[in-house]
Amino acid sequence: MILLLIIRICMIFNSYTSTIFSTSITCMNQLKCDNNIEIAFIGYSNVGKSSMINFLTNQHKLARVSKTPGSTRTINFFKIAKKKYLVDLPGYGYSNFSQNLKNTLKKLIIKYLIYRKSLKAVVLLVDIRRSFRKEDYTIINILNKKNLPILITLTKSDKFSKSIRERKMFKIKKECLLIHKKVSVILFSSTLHLGIFDVKNFLSTYYNT
Question: Which GO terms of the molecular function aspect are on file (predicted)?
Fold first, then answer.
């Protein structure tokens, strides 16, 4: 039993190193196939989506990382295996975007979340220092209606002591369970290697269903 657990842990940690970039889209009409298994990463601009993807796959330049918020303006697909994709959605809430661009990106994100049949689960990144904001609740409500599971990862968790970050996590989890039953909340920090197994375990669960 212990040996099987060790094997499973090793498989989870090594299962994404061969991930490759597949395609980018700017409108839903560019997506033809809708029978894949896709898990999307979403969150505010500069919350750390691209950095997390690079960390998970152990590839420093797979997803574009920028200190400037809003660098991801397309839906980017990364192929993990046959018919299995990791999806990097544009960040939302960047104030320096024009209203027209904000509306365009918002529509693209919402259409993907609502209409994409291949979407099986979502990783929602939230900066633990800022907690939840309006757009985060909008995303959770959309996914609740679709009955899709969510893993909420509280990034930048290394900025707080263990007791404070665990208190914040408990508070957020309590709030989220009021509007979505299929939600899990974890602490994440690439600096502390915190939460990496939880994220990979979540991905493996839905890629292998």
Answer: GTP binding; metal ion binding
CA neighbor of 183 nearest in space, from 121, 134, 128, 135: 121
Is domain 2-207 classified as CATH 3.40.50.300?
A: yes
Residue type for position 22: S
Q: How confident is the model over 83-135, as pLDDT tens digits?
A: 999 999 988 876 566 778 778 888 999 999 999 999 999 999 999 998 788 88
Strands 75-81 and 20-25 turn out to be: antiparallel
Domain definitions of the chain by residue range: 2-207
- Of the CA atoms within 13 Å of residue 145, those in its CB half-sphere come to 9
Q: Are 106 and 92 in contact (CB under 8 A)?
A: yes
d(CA 28, CA 151): 24
User: From its phi and psi, is residue 132 left (phi > 0), alpha (psi between -120 and 50) or beta?
Assistant: beta
3 state SS of 175: helix
Cβ within 8 Å of residue 177, ≥6 positions away: 183
In one-letter notation, the amino acid at residue 133 is R
Write b or e for each residue in 12-31: b if 16 or more Cβ atoms lie within 10 A of its Cβ, otherwise e.
beebbeebeeeeeeeeeeeb
pTM score of the predicted model? 0.87
Q: Which two tokens stand for residue 192?
A: 């502390």
